[in-house]
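User: Could you check the structure of this?
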Amino acid sequence: MFDGRLLNGVSVLAAVVEGGSFVRAAETLGLSPSGVSRAIARLEARINVRLLERTTRSVRLTDEGARFYAQVVPLLGGIEEAATNAAGAMQSVRGRLRINVDPYFSRLVLGPRLGTFMDRYPELQIEIFTRNEIGDLIADGMDVAVRFGEPPQTSLIARQLMQTRVITVASPAYIERHGRPKAPADMAWHTCIFYQDPRTGRAFEWELRRGKKVVELETHSRILVNDAGTTLATCLAGLGIAQVFLIGLKDYLDSGQLIDLFPDWPDELFPLYAFYPSRQHVPAKVRAFIDFCVEITG
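Assistant: Sure, the predicted structure tokens are below.
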């Protein structure tokens, strides 16, 4: 079993040997000379070996003490190196970063830009897990998560990255076959692609917002999906109208592959959050990733 008092005593012994006296060791360690003396006495009693010969003028290692010291000094150096490496990991962007990411954000926003992040931090290895729910971030060994929606009740730290518009879209193929709804009330006559709320298991309700005005849409569907990629694919194929996030869809809208059906209802917004375990000692790799998410969603 690890004995912290033994390690503390060894550290005091090293300070005495390096300083050449109890007084100098006390100054280095911020202790009193008597405190140093007691620590050495406890160490000697712990290992049942006399380590130092003390005179009024000098302190030197006994033969047994010299052998003991020669064995433990490299171990102290290893501990110091490990502490330095750990501190460096907090300050430099390196090591392994495990990310729990919303599938929509991963596919349409993060994935296409991930190369920029990796080029920026060549000492970083990234593991991306796309999931509909956060789960237990700590138990799963995740460093950070990215999710749409308001934060659930959790001990995790939540930082809002941005808000994106929710837009109602259809493909030209769908509009050619079924027509384009000209007003929100027309949605009652169209086929929609529902998306499952992972927290409730039910489909998200549809609404439009303009300023303070909110219109709840009457909708029906033959399709319920729980994957953003499937939502996009079925909408592009002309199977129905979908409500999706504007972020990540600029190319589809600019090219005409998707059409925003109600551009004059622009105020239905959905937040994007990053989650991480603690405010204390946030690793540099986590800070760098969150900053990058802000950059690519700005």
